[in-house]
Every structure is written in structure tokens, then in C-alpha cells.
TrEMBL record:
Family: Belongs to the PP2C family.
Record flagged with keyword Lipoprotein: no
Enzyme Commission number: 3.1.3.16
Name of the top EC class for this enzyme: hydrolase
UniProt catalytic activity: O-phospho-L-threonyl-[protein] + H2O = L-threonyl-[protein] + phosphate; O-phospho-L-seryl-[protein] + H2O = L-seryl-[protein] + phosphate
Superkingdom, taxonomy of origin: Eukaryota
A Pfam family that the UniProt record links to this protein: PP2C
Domain PPM-type phosphatase, chain residue ranges per copy: 28-281
Cofactor: Mg(2+); Mn(2+)
Lineage, broadest ranks: Eukaryota, Viridiplantae, Streptophyta, Embryophyta, Tracheophyta
Organism: Aegilops tauschii subsp. strangulata
Protein name: protein-serine/threonine phosphatase
Keywords: Hydrolase, Magnesium, Manganese, Metal-binding, Protein phosphatase
């Protein structure tokens, strides 16, 4: 499996752009990332031209982290690997893709195993677990305020299968026309708001106060819709502060990891595909 992954939380220059690309006899791709003027780089991406070596499956994913970079980086390292482990991977890629979103989220919730070094031998991990128990280490707390979007596209044969949670976006150019292959999951969408309210959540809207030079308030513009005044997306991996209702399934939580999945055929007028975080769109 030859892959390209990029994320650089330590990137200091806001205008430094990191780009790469590769091609085979079917696909040519290019990737690019730039921190911008935020304090940290929390986005990550993955590109794998040959995912399994025999089914001619290619994988591309964009993960836009928030509250930290760890969850996005983990997904960039592991999401596509977990996909190949799914029983349906060979004959039902759509079902396999859906299962991976829930599997990754469950791993983050269950223990800190996801934070361990991939090269750490299983026997060492077992010893570490025993030591933690012996030392009465504090109970594991999953990432409450950290999470990531996950917009991924798989190409197999003449089909493109896109899975998405959050507000990173996938767009296909067909005959010069832009075709959305994903939906931005925002709290103000009716379907999302209804689920949030049923689960006990609340959707509020920012206020952006404007003042004159004396400091007098002249207007209050309404801004971004957020869940509980915090989160501006309604589906994500992580964010377990919004997934605490034990009476509800993972798909019914205030913030869910349940993906929208769409499949389209590659035809003669298919030109190119773009996957990018919300900062680009």
C-alpha cells in the first residue's frame, strides 16, 4: 500500500504551502495544504492510489480537525486501513464505508489505544495496560471537545463512492458543471436540528456586536449556528460531550458520526474531483 499523508501542526509560516502528487495508469492526483493564520494546523489528508493491491481501489480523504489535531491525524493514519478490514470491503464498499465511521468513533470512545504508537508491539501494549491497572491510573476520558470532519472518496472501477460527515466538501466537475457529492452538516439544517433537539441538544446563533469609536453598541448581527453555543457542525468523529445519551444509538446522538454516502458513475464527461475543508469553499 503506497500512500501519502499530510498534516503539520508545527507549521509556523501561515503562507507556507505543502504540495505533492502522484499518478498511475488510471488516476492522477495533487494535494496541497496550508496552515493559514490560525495558531495551529489541525487538518490532515490521505491519498492512496492502490489501497489493497488487487481490486484497483483508490482512496482520498480530508479530515478537518477542531479542538486539536490528534483526532484528525489519527483518522488520516487509520481510516483507510480500517476500511480494508471490513468484511464487506470486497463486495459492498458502500456498507463497509459506513461501518468504518462508527468503528473509528467507537475506538476513540473506548480507550486510549488510538493514541499509541502504531509500531508498539502487542505484547508491549498488554504490559502497559497491566501497569496502568496496577498503578490505578485515572479512568480514560475520550476526547470531549476535540473531533474531526471526514470527507472521503473511493474510486473502484467506474464508480466514485463518497462518504461525508461535517462540512468538508466533495465536488465533481462533469462537462464543466459542478456537482456536489456531499452535504455540509450544519446545525441549522432542518434534519440536523430535529435530531439535535430530539436528543436533548439546543441550536443557538452567535451574536456579532458592532460598536462605534466611542464603544457604543450600534448593532448586533446574527452569525454562525452552533450546538450548545460551541460546535458549528452537527456530525463529527469525536466530540463526545455531545454523545452522552446512553438511551440513544450512535446515529441518534446530538452529534453523530453517521455518514451520508453517495455513489456516482465515472462517464466520458467526468473531468475532475475536488475534496477540501470548509476554509477552501
Amino acid at each position: 500500500m503506497k500512500s501519502f499523508r499530510k498534516a503539520n501542526p508545527a507549521m509556523s509560516d501561515a503562507t507556507t504551502k505543502c504540495s505533492a502528487g502522484e499518478e498511475n495508469d488510471r488516476i492522477k492526483y495533487a494535494t496541497s495544504s496550508m496552515k493559514g493564520f490560525r495558531d495551529e494546523m489541525e487538518d490532515a489528508l490521505t491519498a492512496v492510489l492502490d489501497l489493497d493491491g488487487y481490486s484497483s481501489t483508490s482512496f482520498f480523504g480530508v479530515y478537518d480537525g477542531h479542538g486539536g489535531a490528534d483526532v484528525a491525524l489519527y483518522c488520516s493514519r487509520q481510516f483507510h486501513i480500517e476500511l480494508t478490514k471490513e468484511p464487506d470491503y470486497g463486495n459492498n464498499l458502500r456498507t463497509a464505508l459506513e461501518h468504518v465511521y462508527f468503528r473509528i468513533d467507537k475506538k476513540l470512545k473506548r480507550s486510549d489505544e488510538w493514541k499509541r504508537e502504531p509500531a508498539d508491539p502487542p505484547v508491549n501494549r498488554t504490559l502497559k495496560n497491566l501497569l496502568r491497572a496496577a498503578l490505578c491510573e485515572e479512568r480514560y476520558v475520550p476526547p470531549l471537545q476535540e473531533g474531526t470532519t471526514a470527507c472521503v472518496a473511493l474510486i473502484r472501477g467506474n464508480q466514485i463512492i463518497v462518504g461525508n460527515i461535517g462540512d468538508s466538501r466533495c465536488v465533481l466537475s462533469r462537462n464543466g458543471q459542478a456537482n456536489d457529492l456531499s452535504t455540509d452538516h450544519k446545525p441549522d439544517l432542518q434534519q440536523e436540528r430535529e435530531r439535535i433537539v430530539r436528543a436533548g441538544g439546543q441550536v443557538t446563533r452567535d451574536e456579532n456586536p458592532q460598536r462605534d469609536i466611542t464603544g457604543r453598541l450600534v448593532s448586533v448581527d446574527l452569525g454562525i449556528h452552533r450546538i450548545g453555543g460551541k460546535l458549528a457542525i452537527s456530525r463529527a468523529i469525536g466530540d463526545f460531550q455531545f454523545k452522552k445519551n446512553k438511551a440513544l444509538s450512535p446515529a441518534e446522538q446530538i452529534v453523530t458520526c453517521s455518514p451520508d454516502i453517495r455513489t456516482v458513475d465515472i462517464t466520458d464527461d467526468t473531468e475532475f474531483l475536488i475534496i477540501a475543508s470548509d476554509g477552501i469553499w
